[in-house]
């Protein structure tokens, strides 16, 4: 809200309307430059949180005569009451101006006081002869109406004239505040208050100050200056003769902001490209060093990415590495090598259908060289397929050894009691269903105990 009030105050500056906003405790919150033009006694004194009574004491201190000063507290008390309850505008004179003032309530915040001059004072022009001639030729009234700032610098490198747009651009109380000052001093003053609230902007300020010093020393080429509030102006110099010069200050803030946005977008794009390259290299390194074969198969059947293990585990020619392959070529080569002989029926149907759909998420098959491979298919959002191939031959052998050990005696290699009971149950169940009997043959070896005792059970 406070920033919005300050922005509103800047708008009122352009209309030459003074503003000061107070909270519900009558403490100052925000004001604009025009307020100091109408009430210069407050410049350098007014601060955020200052009570309206302090404001009025300065105001009446310069207006009341010696005999009236003894009753200043009465004037202040009446002024506060008028401020709190004013509903209609009224007029009064102050420092040669006739001012019209309104007080407006701001619900939930406080009150806003607005002043408008009914009799503005003309700005005096104290120009060198060359600058005066140039202004008369161009018409300084016309220059007052241009939206760009205009400054006349005299032979002594001090400001002799500025228009209202210049005063607005550099945050001056009025145009007279710039007269007789070096341009560098105006630039520094424009930044002084901003640096207190935004110390992070010091780099921009120092850079702009150095640019300004360099170009004032060697005037001629246009240059750009940063201003508080992320504003920018382009300064163009034109000599008038006699050592004086016109300086046009063109507001290029929106252009620079667009440039900043483009530069920011470009930085983001470059960072994303860098991250993408990094991720791509990381992916390639990861895929290249996997024990599994990996392939990315597009919707059109083109194998867009595969590693060396993919070729090796499927028995494909190693010279295919780096080539752009189609799944049709791979399947045709595998058929020619009898790779699918003896494969499960589900696998054969899948291969004959093209082998590129996610309909068979996982299958195993024995290759022509006797190795057993496991193939997994993972569908992706864009319709492509990620296929992995793993050699599970050793795993199958280990599983077989575990199954054999679970059902056979380690010493004799014969089936153990658990396996015998499974077989017996199966035979008796078959006998019950078919009516054909079964028998169990029991053998007992005489004299076998000494052998067990001597050689181990």
What are its keywords?
4 domains, five-stranded antiparallel β-sheet, six-stranded antiparallel β-sheet, elongated, alpha+beta, 16 strands, 457 residues, Beta-Lactamase, single chain
Structure description:
It is a single chain. The protein has 457 residues and is α+β, with helices and mostly antiparallel strands. The chain has four domains: 2-117, PAS domain (Beta-Lactamase, 2-Layer Sandwich); 129-251, PAS domain (Beta-Lactamase, 2-Layer Sandwich); 290-395, 2-Layer Sandwich (Beta-Lactamase), CATH 3.30.450; 408-455, no CATH class. The chain contains 16 helices and 16 strands. It has helices at 2-14, 33-38, 52-61, 72-85, 129-138, 140-143, 164-169, 183-197, 202-217, 253-288, 308-314, 327-336, 345-352, 393-407, 417-434, 449-455, and strands at residues 17-23, 28-31, 90-94, 97-106, 110-117, 149-153, 159-162, 223-227, 231-241, 244-251, 293-297, 302-306, 325-326, 362-366, 372-379, 385-391. The chain is elongated. Residues 121-127 have low confidence and may be disordered.
